[in-house]
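User: Structure please.
Assistant: Input sequence and predicted structure:
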Amino acid sequence: MTDCIDAWTHILPKHYFAKLQTVGSASGRLKRWLTLKTLFDLDERFRVMDRFPGYRQFLTPSLPPVEDLADGQAATDLARLMNDELAELVAAHPDRFAGWCGALSLIDPAAAVKEVDRLTQMGSASGGHSDGPMKAARRWRAWCSPVCLIGTQICESSPIIWAL
């Protein structure tokens, strides 16, 4: 029985984290993330979770936003990799993970709309880290209306844009 669902638990799934290390610098934020084992090491995450009976997590993509790591199609591909792995984790561990929120790249609004549709079919809430208020606002306008047309509710919680 679940007594508590933590709805803001960032994660860097295994293959996404490996890819991240090839596109990011080992300095700055990535250097710090390498010390936060619960972000990328499931055994460590489960060890911490096991200290709290009835505790489950709703997984959310960790920063940085995919737009900070790549441009164009490469950013879209990173988001898809993250989303596929989040879906696999939740399916493999339903006793530990209550659900997940997918990542979006807003660089290509048309691709973001397609990914929202795919995420909805996968059973996810979908979201995208924005890369700054002004850039995000321009991208938001480009994909908000089409997403609303496919019947997806959207709410914004900076720096995450959620489509539920």
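The first strand starts at residue 4 and ends at 11.
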